[in-house]
Amino acid sequence: ALGYHKVVKENRNLYNMVQDLKGNIRVYCRIRPAFNSEAKNVIDFTGEDGSVVVSDPLKPHKDGRKVFQFNRVFGPIATQDEVFKDTQPLIRSVMDGYNVCIFAYGQTGSGKTHTMCGPSGGSRKELGINYLALNDLFLLSNRRKDITNKLEIRSCTGDDGLSVPQATMHPVKSTADVLHLMKLGEVNRAVSSTAINDQSSRSHSILTVHIHGKDVSGSALRSCLHLVDLAGSERVDKSEVTGDALKEAQYINKSLSCLGDVITALAQKSSYIPYRNSKLTLLLQTSLGGNAKTLMFAHVSPEREYLGETISTLKFAQRVSTIELGAACTNKESREVMQLKEQIDSLKKVLANRE
Ligand code: ADP
Ligand code: MG
């Protein structure tokens, strides 16, 4: 058994190395703990290594078993730190000039916000990727004395992404500044109750970190990190929302289905990728396109009543994992280009003052 595990582990490392060469999209699956441990109807996820086996307890024969393969699977007892540990190298690569996008996908109540922000009670013990990532980037930036990295935060919420009128850019000096901004964002976030979960978030929440710095040769490094907590992916009819809430849900589902279309087009290596069909895909274009590193967290609930949604999330995630893009590359600008841009900026200022 030991030998077997070793082989599996080595295979995984090899797999990750190949992923590194492809430099693009990886998919992690996270299964949240069951709310009621007594419930008999819990789906049995007994995957080895990166696989998830979903077996429907009501269909114990072969038809009820489905197997999915991902880069990594976090079971119900995985801690926030474990999840972060496997995400950290990717996040750190923004400091080397890569664009990075991490997005949490799944139905309402499957644990997206738990992974990205932390538990709803706001326990300081189980802070999520947003906090841990920012903390790590500040640490790294303070440690790299040779590079003048300046962190700037652009925090925006809502489906509108970059063009959201209320979106604001805030320079930040510490993780505490960021936490404060994130709290403000949380308050602004449209939350309305549905039949599925009375804390259902039907808005996307996007935290973008812009990194400006210089490497040792003096070239400018510009990169960004998108941390995205998507709206619930469940079908609208199930959540029994009506009126304005329904319109909002449909609108948001539309942007999620546009995301699906983009993923499909990328997976099929289509010559036309419909990024422009929604603000969400437009915003994520640089992350889902060529040179970025993207990580999707596919979140699923263990309860049997959500089997349909669970399977559809896993199928979507499987499709995302088949996307092959070129190797990721950094955004470097030569010193000459940088100086020219600075000249343009100062000339623009001169012009503006004349008017
Ligand atoms: P979503 O954002 O997908 O709607 P949440 O993150 O709000 O879901 O999770 C729903 C509930 O389950 C919350 O009370 C959350 O604290 C809890 N939960 C989710 N994932 C985990 C986990 N891995 N460990 C412990 N509790 C979790
Ligand atoms: Mg949420």
Number of helices: 11
- Identify the overall geometry: globular
Low-confidence stretches: 1-9, 155-166, 190-200
Beta-strand content bin: 15-25%
Residue share in helix:
25-40%
Amino-to-carboxy terminus distance: 77 Å
Q: Report Rg.
A: 21 Å
What is the total tally of β strands? 12
Mean pLDDT, all residues: 76
Question: N-to-C SSE series?
Answer: HEEEEEHHEHHEEHEEHHHEHEH
- Structural class based on helices, strands and sheet pairing: alpha/beta
Family: Belongs to the TRAFAC class myosin-kinesin ATPase superfamily. Kinesin family. KIN-14 subfamily.
Coiled coil: 330-355
Binding site for ATP: 106-113
Domain Kinesin motor: 24-323
Describe what this molecule looks like in 3D.
The chain is built from eleven helices and twelve strands. Strand 9 and strand 10 (220-229) form a beta hairpin. Helix 8 (243-267) runs parallel beside helix 9 (279-288). Strands 1, 5, 6, 7, 8, 9, 10, 11 and 12 form a nine-stranded mixed beta sheet that branches. It has a three-stranded antiparallel beta sheet with strand order 2-3-4, covered by helices on one side. The chain is an alpha/beta fold. The radius of gyration is 21 Å and the shape is globular. The relative contact order is 0.18. Mean pLDDT is 76; it is low at 1-9, 155-166 and 190-200. It starts with a helix and ends with a helix. The structure holds adenosine-5'-diphosphate and magnesium ion (MG). ATP binds at residues 106-113. Residues 330-355 form a coiled coil. GO terms for molecular function: ATP binding; cytoskeletal motor activity.
